[in-house]
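Ticket #4471: structure export looks truncated?
Reporter: QA, pipeline team
Priority: medium

Steps to reproduce: submit the single chain below to the structure queue and open the exported record.
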Amino acid sequence: MSKVVLKNLVKSYNGKQNVIDNINLEIKDKEFIVLVGSSGCGKSTILRLISGLEDITEGEIYIDDKKVNNVHPKDRDIAFVFQSYALYPHMSVYDNIAFGLKMRKIDKKTIDTKVKDAAKALNLEEFLERKPKELSGGQRQRVALGRAIVRNPKVFLMDEPLSNLDANLRVQMRAEIKRLHQKLGTTFIYVTHDQTEALTMGDRIVVLDKGKIQQADTPENIYNNPKNRFVAGFIGQMNFVPIAPINGKFQIEGQDFELPSNINKECVEIGIRSEKMLSGEKVLQARPEITEMIGGEKIVYTKLNGSDCSAKVPLVYNIGETVELKLSEKDMYFFDREGKNILYE
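Actual output as written to the record:
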């Protein structure tokens, strides 16, 4: 069992505003959970609290039903993979991976077996005698992962481990880390600010803002049923359009739309994703102000009801030409003044 439970977790510095504000979260055994949010939301602090590198202000942390608030980091049976590779430049790949085991005075035969098994799992077998400076960024990150694997920890903590890699390597390493999780069958807690990493890697995603959990759910539910405006805007490409409903109807650029019949609160804004801007039956005319080509389609930027919006469209549209948008109420999200998704409640 590698379950991790956070109960009423609070972290503040010098008695000032809480960086982590009463967080409750249960991370299941063998789960791959991703903490995502903008800079300063508290996601990395949560990892440091779990690892013991930071002291808890209030609350409790349990690993395998054992309270670890006062347990030394080295005794928590976790492995931490940082954003920086933190490899010893004068040591070979073999010695970098083996270093932690040697410090624990594990016998040489066991170390050799563990290092070679980790190298095989990470496709590092041919690089064991090389120094870190002779490796690519992706290979160095795999060495850092190997150093964590050989410890056979209950929990892996990963703090933006791919942020130093270029785009192609990030895609490759995402797949490698997912395969590694499946092979090891261990609990992974992964921090990122990249929504693509969150959506493609996590069994569950925890969206954080200002030290609070905004939503914790599967990638599908986070994307399709965002709980509030913050989650809707942070995950995916969402357009927000102000509206002023009258008698159950509202307008976007002069075109009439109807509020869903089950909405009984005041709605002040709708949200609609960029990829849904051509999928409805009600036609609007708009002029692109900026266009971006992304492979076989374009993103055009325009305005609806005075608000900036984007739409994924075919390649034929250019700046200054009229673009025909097709919207439908079934693709819309409806938000009240507090930013709550009215349909989600």
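Status: closed, not a bug. The export was complete when the record was re-opened. Leaving a note from the reviewer for reference: The helical segments are 43-51, 93-103, 108-121, 137-149, 167-184, 195-201, 219-224, 229-234.
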